[in-house]
Amino acid sequence: MRERMSPSSRARRAAPGRARRARPRRGTSVGALALAVLCALLPGTAYLIARRTWLGTLVTTCSIALYGAAAYVGLRRRDDVILWALDPGLLLWMVVGLGVVALVWVVVLVTSYKMLRPLTAGPGSRMFGSLVIGVVCFAMAASTATGAQTLMAQRSLVQNVFSGKKAKSQTRPTINPKKDVWQQLPRLNVLLLGADDGEDRQGTRTDSVMVASIDTKTGDTALISLTRNWMRMPFPEDSPLHKIYPTGFWDPNGPVEQPNFYLDAMYRMIPAQHHGILGPSDNEGADVLKLSVGEALGLKLHYYVQINLAGFAQLVEALGGITVNINYPVPVGGNDDKKIPASRYLQPGPNRELNGTDALWFARGRYNVPTADLARQARQRCTVKAIVERATPQNVLANYQAIAKAGEQLIKTDIPQNLLGDFVTLGQRVKTAKITNIDLDKKKNYPNGRNPNYAGMRTLVQQALNPTPKPRRTTPTTAPTHRTTTKPTTTPATDPGDLTSACAYKPGPPG
Predict the structure, then answer these.
(1) What's residue 133's pLDDT?
(2) Which of 54, 420, 441, 479 is the residue whose CA sits 20 to 30 A from 15?
(3) Do residues 193 and 307 lie in contact, with contact meaning Cβ atoms separated by under 8 Å?
(4) What's the rounded Cα separation, in Å, for the pair 285 and 205?
(5) CA–CA separation, 138 vs 133, rounded Å?
(6) How far apart, in Å, do the first and last CA atoms of the chain sit?
(7) Which residue stretches of 411-492 are H helix?
(8) pLDDT score, position 120
(9) Quick one: pLDDT band at residue 290, thresholds 50, 70, 90?
(10) 250 with 279: CB under 8 angstroms?
(11) How many angstroms from the chain centroid is the CA of residue 432?
(12) Are 222 and 212 spatial neighbours (Cβ–Cβ below 8 Å)?
């Protein structure tokens, strides 16, 4: 028969177990709650305090390993982080991993509090503790959701903006992935297009056309602006478009002024009239302009970046605005052809903070502005400079979701996904390097846009990008017999191509 135990015997046999379990639960409910929350900074330590040695050791070790891996990656593998952030497949796995880590973190926090909470805690203490733990868990979930949204925004940006393996382009260079990209492209030439497809336009016009020529070793960048009303834009001799327009894009039998043959009309007119003439392409208009602008300037254009000016304001807003110097009143709105006056003006002043809408009009306003197109080109270069300065790593990270969303809607490009890491590295060089302007000499080379001197422009571009080194002065072998005089020192002239000088505050009309 089973031996019956007296109450005192059962108490003595159970006492050691209760004592071992109760020991870590001494103290107040508030103390246990505070300890559980603090131990969440290093998950697993609460288990050790609660005498769950094996489980605590395992979770704490994993936590320390994760912290160590994160520190190592952040300090020693930053370039790899950039590459990971540009891989859509890996970004998706990052989102999954982030969710798993957050779930485990919440489970560890909840169980830690249950293990540390005194057994004698009353209903009020239990309810208060549960409320605090719930709030902390919600904060963890919210931060995880924010991180996941940022990763998904980055993934969407990479997939929708940058061309993948199936992208079609007839003008991109062939890059050997096994060799250093910038050794293959010691000078990178990128076509920058500002496209306007407003409600009063039939199709898209590229009112802003610039070329950024970048020394990939130093990051020094030269900006070259083209005027929208240029006619007779040339094509390379080996292009099928040269056979159609041997003397450039214009109608020899047409009137003096031919707006449908302006530079800003090529993007929409040539694909409409000669669809598929260059071969399969995701953006025929951009391929046409890369060939023609490159021929006009004597450069091989490698990639293009197209920004929709109608949504440009969103990008500036996402960056938190830009700062520019305004030297004369810049019109907001207005139309010279239709005699519609500007609704208001951006007033002159140094270091003007502009929101998205005002930044857009600073870049494109031209109503009643002297030398309207040239003045607008100059302000557009200053706008590019202001955006580069505004896009600090801290600012970009703080507003990344908005920037990614704006960029996805505003930007088109043929830069391939597999080169994004290299472009990010180059972008860091550009940000700290010198940005200059190449003046194509309007008075001499294009007093009007009817027949620009493209040969003269090509000469100016080559001289600016490949300056002839000045000969060294030789020291005479014999001392001069005449008495030398010391010339007064003079301040060197400001480089007219330096954007820092060109965009400085110098009140007065454009000239």
Answers:
(1) 84
(2) 54
(3) yes
(4) 10
(5) 9
(6) 114
(7) 420-432, 442-445, 454-465
(8) 67
(9) very high
(10) no
(11) 15
(12) yes
Q: How far apart are CA 157 and CA 168, in angstroms?
A: 19
pTM of the model: 0.67
Half-sphere exposure of 103 (CA within 13 A, CB side): 6
- Per 3-state DSSP, the chain is made up of helix, strand and coil in percentages (nearest 5) of 50, 10, 35
Strands (E), 282-329: 303-308, 322-326
Give the closest residue to 159 by CA, choosing from 420, 388, 395.
Answer: 420
307 SS3 class: strand
User: 10 Å Cβ neighbour count for 206?
Assistant: 26
Cα distances (angstroms) measured from residue 74 to each of 67, 69, 70, 144? 11, 8, 6, 19
Please give the structure tokens belonging to residue 446. 């294009």
Which one has a higher pLDDT value, 177 or 165?
177
Q: Which residue has the tokens 């007033």?
A: 347
Task: Decide: 302 and 185 in contact? Cβ < 8 Å.
Answer: yes
Res. 176: pLDDT tops 70: yes
User: 């040239």: which residue's tokens?
Assistant: 374
Per-residue pLDDT tens over the stretch 451-496: 999 999 999 999 999 887 766 665 554 544 444 444 444 434 445 4
CA distance 286 to 58: 57
What's the DSSP call for residue 194?
Answer: E
| Helices and strands: H and E segment counts in the chain | 20, 10
- 20 falls in which pLDDT band (50, 70, 90)? very low
State mean pLDDT over 307-318: 79
Residue 119 pLDDT grade (very low, low, confident, very high; cuts 50, 70, 90) = low
